[in-house]
Amino acid sequence: GLWSKYTDAFLAPGLLLYLLAAPERRQWPGWAGAALALVVFSPVLWWNFAHNWASFRFQGRRTVMTGIDPNWGGNLVELLAGQALFLGPLLLIFALVGAAAFALRREPRLALPFWSSLPAAGYFVWHTLHGRVEANWPIPLGPSLTLFAAWSTLELWRRVRWLGGAVVALQLAFGLAITGIVYAQALWQPFGGSGIVDRTTETRGWAKLQQAVETLARDNGARWIATAGNFGVTGELASYALFAGSPLPVRQIDEPERWGYWPPLPADVLSAPALFVRIEPDPLSPKPPAEFAQARLVGVFRRDGGKAPLEAWSAFLVSEPAEEVTRALAP
Q1: In what order do the strands lie in the sheet with 250-252?
Q2: For the chain, what is the radius of gyration of the CA atoms?
Q3: Interatomic CA distance for residues 8 and 196, integer angstroms
Q4: What is the pLDDT confidence band of residue 65, given thresholds at 50, 70 and 90?
Q5: For 248-290, what is each residue's pLDDT tens digit?
Q6: Neighbour count for residue 291 (Cβ, 10 Å)
Q7: Do 135 and 84 contact (CB within 8 A), yes or no?
Q8: Beta-carbon count within 10 A of 312 CB
Q9: Are 310 and 302 in contact (CB under 8 A)?
Q10: Given a cut of 80, is residue 106 above it in pLDDT?
Q11: Do 90 and 150 form a contact (C-beta atoms < 8 A)?
């Protein structure tokens, strides 16, 4: 898990708590498992050691926060609401009941999911004091929350069988309904075509957008596409350029830690004009990028959302990149 998502690092102190919480668990298999996990993760540690701890420093920036967010209560409500939508309200409620049951009664069958998930859950609640927690961040807690909910449901089923069965049926119906709604929206957009709740908009309009970007680049003599500050935009444009067989390389000019696996731009391409594109916060008055000495606005357009246009984009013809851009992209 740590090879792909550092959030899984919270599992390590959680398992340590599990081993230390009861004397009978402090046996050699647990410590042997920890040693094996460290061996499996060692290539990542070695790579970071050889590269000035690049990925650890990059991801660590998200955890360094100071001051209390005035909207911390709203952040906490948003965290709970996001998990209720991801898991289903019933599953979340029954999961919290199961966690409380362990905390109050020390139900031994819940020891592993409780201790192993406690550090991550504690961190996400603490994070709400300083900023928003994206709904997908706590996904590693899903298995433990599901085990808590299963225990609570079984306890209810033993006491009131019909009610336990009804809870299972409602959760199943919720999952099928949400899945059906998402697929229907993705295919036919019956609920409109914009808004922060509709995440299917993230899949729309990229092929047309890439074609518009390439046309602007060709018409203005640009030899590469520049982006900044949004790895999602970079990934979408680079992917659809690859699908379309575009000869124009796409490069993000900042956050070089993310893009070390991409080949550097040849000197003659880097010194040529580029088309700098971004999601434009102010479509009526786009500001030129500060990373280039020369920048001229050549287009403002919107991504096609099917039934409704989505965010505005701007495109600048740029040249004479700043030294930090050249250093990040040059051979």
Answers
A1: 250-252, 224-227, 274-279, 309-321, 292-304
A2: 25
A3: 27
A4: low
A5: 999 999 988 888 889 999 999 999 999 999 999 999 999 999 9
A6: 19
A7: no
A8: 17
A9: yes
A10: no
A11: no
**Sequence-ordered list of residues with C-beta below 8 angstroms from that of 278, at least 6 positions apart, any chain:** 227, 228, 229, 230, 233, 289, 313, 314
Tokens encoding 227: 């982006």
Report CA-CA distances (Å) from 27 to 11, 16, 106, 107, 109: 19, 12, 21, 21, 18
- Convert the chain into a string of H (helix), E (strand) and C (coil): CCCCCHHHHHHHHHHHHHHHCCHHHCCHHHHHHHHHHHHHHHHHHHHHHHCCCHHHHHHHHHHCCCCCCCCHHHHHHHHHHHHHHHHCHHHHHHHHHHHHHHHHHCCHHHHHHHHHHHHHHHHHHHHCCCCCCCCCCCHHHHHHHHHHHHHHHHHHHHHCHHHHHHHHHHHHHHHHHHHHHHHHHHHHCCCCCCCCCCHHHHHCCHHHHHHHHHHHHHHCCCCEEEECCCHHHHHHHHHHHHHCCCCCCEEECCCHHHHCCCCCCCHHHHCCCEEEEEECCCCCCCCCCCCEEEEEEEEEEEEECCCCEEEEEEEEEEEEECHHHHHHHCC
Structure tokens at 96: 């919290």
Question: Hunting for tokens 């209560």 — which residue is that?
Answer: 73
The CA-atom distances, in angstroms, between 277 and each of 224, 230, 252, 291, 316 are 11, 11, 10, 13, 7
